[in-house]
Amino acid sequence: MSEKLKVNTLNPDNWIDNYADYLFNYAIARVNNYDIAKDLVQETFFAGLKSAKNFEGKSTERTWLISILKRKIIDYYRKINSKKGQAEVRMSFYDDGDNEGNWIEERVPQSWDSTTEKDIENDELKLQIDSCINKLPEKYALVFRMKTIQGFETEDICKELDITASNLWVIIHRARTQLRDCLEKNWFNK
Which residues form the RNA polymerase sigma factor 70 region 4 type domain (predicted)? Predict the structure, then answer.
């Protein structure tokens, strides 16, 4: 039987042993909360069991479970963000003329000087950065980690979180501004 014709089957009895750690690591990187990540993985397994009859075998079990988990993560963020609404605030963009949609340069957080980059090697600063990221609103922290730390592409983040590229960059800008304020208060001005 050729590889293209091979049909994958589900084996739910082995899901926890084979995929729980992988799914948990995937979830924790996106929600940064142990309990929520654990719940999302459990919901993924439950949803997989409920929809097993729909599995066509065109992908591996792991790929299929990851696609379910992605939808669970998206649903999680939609639920927590539905209270806040989906309005985009464009306070840091030009909103008319030839520059529409471009950054207003004086509002963009400026880069730190070169000595700061050397200080990042310091473990205490790394801990402070993590602490400041954890103080960000949950969606800001997620988007910041995905884009800046994990290196996800803008398109992938937008698709996964169901946001526009413009909204992503507003979130990144706000996250950077809040991180800078937090670090200035808690690290540079000690």
Answer: 127-179
